[in-house]
Design brief:
The complex is a heterotrimer. Helix content of chain A is 56%, strand content 10%. Chain A has 9 helices and 5 strands, in the order ααααβαβαβαβαβα. In chain A, strands 2-1-3-4-5 form a 5-stranded parallel β-sheet, with helices on both faces. Chain A is elongated, with a radius of gyration of 18 Å. Chain B is mostly helical. Chain B has one domain. Chain C has a single domain, classed as TIM Barrel, CATH 3.20.20. Classes of the chains: A alpha/beta, B mainly alpha, C alpha/beta. At the B-C interface, helix 1, helix 2, helix 5 and helix 6 of B face helix 4, helix 6 and helix 12 of C.
Chain lengths: 214, 104, 348
């Protein structure tokens, strides 16, 4: 089978959220001599990216994403065994995320957490109403690559600015990427407070994050 | 911001007949044109009069259906709503409540 | 070729060439048509939008005779937010007499049905006193806000956390239990307000917590309509499509997740809703012409199938209005005029 066919089949297994098919394709593609890293990045991950796009358009729903993610994880587990030791069990990045103190809105943040996990990031979700110092402590503890904060209201949005300042004070700001989200956040707000980027939607967040981590 | 909408495309509230047209949407589920026609007919004015504050101030004062600068002795608030219910021939919930309490 | 001054979706000014403006208008409608599987705006409609954006005037308005009903949601809360120290009743008097409100709405600062329930008696008294001194039709408004029914704010397991653990069935059960509790609260508070004389109930920002939130609004509306056949219920949405956080909830056999405004309004009609308030979110990183063209495409499709009055949401960050606390009059008036005239709206 041609390389493109293998990649298409892998992506389709994820779109179908079919764990058994994903495992079968992973095994057979290895036997056929396919590069496992390529199968992960260009095949199965492409399927998950498409799922994320469909979620953004209201054509796929959160439980469907979770099931597709399970299928992807099962396939990746098989493919990883064929990778060199140093490439095994690599995470896309370590993320600490939460809704800032005083804000109890966590539905949007919960969606982002699911999407990031589905895409292979190691996510530490601090929940909602999170004191600023907790973001800093956790970021240190897990050696985070990314610190994300959510705020739903103009009254709580200032917490995102305080987080930037706290990360600077702790000497972490140059070591992490910061991302902000929430109903009232914008690109301009991110620039104004010194955050690295604003994630407008789950898909937008994933794209910007990937770009910056690369 | 809402004031921008009020001036750009709103009917004008109590300055005009906006509240009355809104009542027809709320009580009879009328779409905008039907509601305007209904109110214009009941007030005996033209459709364009409905958003004219000069015409509507006079109409509202004469009918005592609530006006921006109420004159002494004219119907106001709940009293004016009793008259609105009468003029528009609709049930207004708070007026019905008074009736049910035997106050009307 | 001259430059046209317009704004980005976050409200900041931007200059565009005629070609850029036309390009953004076309891209906006195509995006909506593609997502909603609806018709894009016609060439004539896009030209009409172009002319509005190209107008040299700071403020534009509808033609006389095309005005629509303007309802203010959560009006007293907005004055509180602006730190204007007036009582809610005075705030509503200001809205009906000075701010051109065709309807007024009383709401509590929490603006959710659940926290109002234990203080409903106090709210009823305020509403009853408001009715004595106001003239415009008075709504009582609040949000279904299913977020308040999940732990730690509510009794049910947090579905976001369950979903992250892959416990899909448990997450769905939690949503379903939350719907039942929310419906009870909405019906309880709304009944109290209607018994006190409110002209209508506004369920605002419905769907904010996904398909279960929308279902709660619909079920509550259905019960209230059966209980009070004359009640006016306005059901306003939270986003342009219903987020599928449960994914399998249905209303009269139709799956709610993924529904855009033109499908949502049919559900609202089935539930007995009197006025429907669709929402289209503005993207802060795209231009206002792109956002407005896109929003009008969705709303027009909704108005075309609606049998009930449509009052589109055009506040901060929705309906082509930029995401900024103080949307400028130039862009708000353009959005207002275009939305009203192209969609044949019944109200805002």
């Amino acid at each position: 089978m041609e390389k493109t066919k293998w990649l298409e089949k892998a992506a389709q297994a994820i779109l179908d959220a079919d764990e058994a098919a994903a495992q079968d394709i992973a095994e057979k593609s290895l036997a056929a001599g396919m590069d496992p890293l390529e199968m992960i990045n260009e095949g199965f991950a492409a399927g998950i990216r498409k799922m994320g796009d469909l979620f953004d358009r209201g054509e796929v729903f959160l439980p469907g994403l979770v099931v597709a993610s399970d299928a992807m994880m099962a396939a990746v587990k098989i493919l990883e065994q064929a990778l060199p030791k140093d490439k095994q069990d690599q995470k896309m990045g370590v993320i600490v995320i939460g809704t800032v103190e005083g804000d109890i809105h966590d539905i949007g943040k919960g969606i982002i957490v699911t999407m990031l996990s589905v895409h292979g990031y190691e996510v530490h979700d601090l929940g909602r109403d999170v004191p600023i110092e907790n973001f800093v402590t956790k970021a240190k503890e897990v050696n985070a690559d990314v610190v994300g904060s959510s705020a739903m209201m103009t009254t709580t949005q200032l917490g995102q600015k305080k987080l930037e300042e706290a990360l600077k004070a702790a000497g972490l700001r140059n070591k992490v990427i910061t991302m902000v989200g929430g109903a009232v956040a914008t690109d301009h707000w991110a620039k104004r407070i010194g955050a690295d980027f604003y994630g407008e939607s789950p898909q937008d967040t994933l794209e910007k994050l990937k770009e910056r981590l690369n | 911001m809402a004031v921008s909408h009020a001036i750009a495309s709103g009917m004008g509230g109590m300055r005009t007949a906006g509240d009355l047209v809104a009542r027809m949407q709320m009580t009879r589920g009328m779409k905008i044109q039907e509601a305007k026609n209904y109110v214009a007919d009941k007030l005996n004015v033209s459709i364009s009069d409905l958003t004219d504050p000069v015409v509507m101030t006079e109409v509202r004062e004469e009918l005592e259906i609530g006006s921006l600068n109420p004159l002494p002795g004219c119907l106001k608030g709940l009293e004016a709503k009793m008259r609105i219910a009468e003029v528009l021939d609709i049930d207004i919930n708070c007026i019905r409540r008074l009736r049910n309490k035997g106050l009307l | 070729m001259g430059k046209i001054m317009t704004r980005m979706g976050d409200g900041f000014p931007v200059e565009m060439s005629e070609n850029q403006l036309r390009g953004d208008l076309a891209a906006g409608t195509e995006d909506a048509a593609d997502r909603g599987k609806i018709s894009p705006l016609s060439k004539e409609e896009l030209q009409y939008l172009f002319d509005i954006f190209n107008s040299p005037y700071r403020f534009v308005s509808t033609e006389p005779g095309k005005e629509v009903v303007l309802s203010y949601d959560a009006a007293p809360i907005k004055l509180m937010r602006a730190a204007v120290n007036v009582h809610r009743i005075q705030s509503l008097q200001i809205h009906e007499k000075l701010l051109g409100a065709d309807t007024i709405e009383l709401g509590h600062i929490d603006y959710s049905f659940k926290p109002v329930k234990p203080i409903v008696g106090t709210e009823q008294t305020v509403l009853e006193q408001t009715l004595l001194v106001t003239h415009a039709p008075l709504f009582y408004g609040a949000m279904p806000n299913l977020g308040l029914y999940r732990q730690p704010d509510g009794p049910f397991p947090n579905p976001s956390e369950l979903m992250q653990l892959g416990k899909i069935d448990e997450a769905r059960q939690s949503y379903e239990m939350a719907v039942e509790d929310a419906v009870k609260d909405i019906v309880y508070v709304s009944s109290a307000m209607y018994d006190s004389g409110a002209d209508g109930i506004n369920m605002d920002t419905t769907g904010a917590a996904g398909d279960a939130d929308f279902l709660a609004g619909l079920k509550a509306a259905e019960i209230l309509k059966q209980k009070y056949p004359d009640i006016c219920i306005e059901l306003g949405m939270a986003g342009e499509f219903v987020l599928g956080l449960h994914g399998e909830l249905t209303y009269h056999g139709d799956r709610l997740a993924g529904m855009y405004a033109h499908d949502q309004v049919k559900m609202a009609e089935k539930a007995g809703v009197t006025i429907f308030g669709p929402v289209v979110n503005s993207k802060s990183s795209r231009s206002c012409p792109w956002n407005l063209s896109r929003a009008i495409t969705f709303i027009k499709a909704c108005c075309e199938v609606a049998n009930i009055p449509i009052h589109v949401n055009m506040g901060m960050g929705v309906g082509g209005v930029p995401m900024t606390a103080h949307p400028p009059v130039d862009i708000t008036s353009r959005a207002s005029k275009a939305m009203v005239e192209l969609c044949r709206l019944d109200g805002l």
